[in-house]
């Protein structure tokens, strides 16, 4: 199912200042589309957990409004919260209960009727069915995290928050989890995830939001973000070392390595004017330089993220929601 332009989560002017004076969120505006996978990225302490807590009713905002599927998260808390599933970072659950019982109980907490078929489908989808009678304390860390996801899905939410869902999970389980996330999105569930494995956000997300020091820095389609802020690096190995950059390349975005054996051309994804690779090769040929190798690389989402948040005084970019 493709994401629609209809927002399932709408946040306006959200701020949170704690009694200590710490300002965790500052005038956050954010809209999440129904049926999308949205990655919320930010450094430690940026406000991700506070933002999730405010939406889920775990943190009382200082100012602002939150609408979940049209329900005000403060005035109509029960209806709003019933539409949200939350998978927290911490493995917080009843360790002495069985898998099946704790997932069934979570459904009952939201006033839902017992539905054995649904619980079975959820457990099977997370490869937990064979462990349904196991006590949670006996499970591995990865399986316990799957139980948290099952609990969050038990009441059939329309929005699912995954806060560092694959932390401490091995590669095989992580792959299974992301397959499950794709299935949920196809069923119309909106997924909002935070992760330190930014390559996962690059692979999975439809849109990316970056939060820094309690403020949304930007929200953009992932492909547009990669195109606007990414860079392509062309590295050309030379057969013979150069002492200095050739006169034909002075003033261009071309650098010569210290050993004189590599020329590097960096092209910005923003589409600005610059030397094209074809023209670079033409000039090298005109200068009589022999090329021994050519390699290209592109910025990853992690490269872009690090660049955006590493400058303490970076300008605030336009938010595109």
TrEMBL record:
Keywords of the record: ATP-binding, Nucleotide-binding, Transport
Organism annotation: Ancylobacter crimeensis
Domain ABC transporter, residue spans: 9-238
InterPro entries, per the entry: AAA+_ATPase, ABC_transporter-like_ATP-bd, ABC_transporter-like_CS, ABC_transporter_ATP-binding, P-loop_NTPase
GO MF assignments: ATP binding
Name of the protein: ABC transporter ATP-binding protein
Family statement: Belongs to the ABC transporter superfamily.
């Amino acid at each position: 199912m493709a994401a629609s332009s209809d927002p399932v989560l709408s946040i306006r002017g959200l701020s949170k200042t704690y009694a200590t004076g710490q300002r965790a969120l500052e005038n956050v505006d954010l809209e999440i589309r129904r049926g999308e996978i949205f990655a919320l990225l930010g450094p430690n302490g940026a406000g991700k957990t506070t933002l999730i807590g405010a939406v889920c009713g775990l943190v009382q905002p200082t100012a602002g409004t939150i609408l979940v599927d049209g329900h005000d998260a403060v005035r109509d808390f029960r209806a709003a919260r019933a539409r949200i599933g939350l998978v927290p970072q911490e493995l917080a659950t009843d360790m002495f209960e069985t898998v099946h019982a704790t997932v069934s109980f979570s459904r009952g907490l939201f006033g839902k009727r017992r539905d054995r078929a649904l619980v079975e489908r959820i457990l099977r989808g997370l490869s937990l069915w064979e462990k349904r009678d196991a006590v949670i304390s006996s499970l591995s860390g990865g399986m316990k995290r799957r139980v948290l996801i099952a609990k969050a899905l038990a009441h059939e939410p329309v929005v699912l928050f995954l806060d560092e869902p694959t932390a401490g999970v091995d590669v095989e389980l992580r792959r299974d989890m992301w397959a499950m996330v794709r299935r949920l999105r196809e069923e119309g569930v909106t997924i909002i995830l935070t992760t330190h494995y930014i390559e996962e956000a690059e692979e999975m997300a439809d849109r990316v939001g970056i939060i820094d020091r309690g403020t949304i820095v930007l929200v953009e389609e992932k492909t547009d973000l990669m195109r606007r802020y990414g860079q392509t690096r062309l590295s050309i190995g030379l057969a013979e070392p150069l002492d200095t950059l050739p006169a034909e390349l002075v003033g261009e975005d071309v650098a010569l390595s210290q050993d004189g054996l590599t020329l590097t051309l960096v092209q910005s994804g923003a589409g600005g004017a610059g030397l094209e690779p074809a023209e670079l090769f033409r000039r090298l040929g005109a200068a009589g330089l022999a090329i021994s190798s050519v390699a290209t690389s592109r910025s990853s989402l992690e490269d872009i993220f690090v660049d955006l948040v590493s400058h303490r005084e970076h300008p605030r970019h336009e938010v595109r929601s």
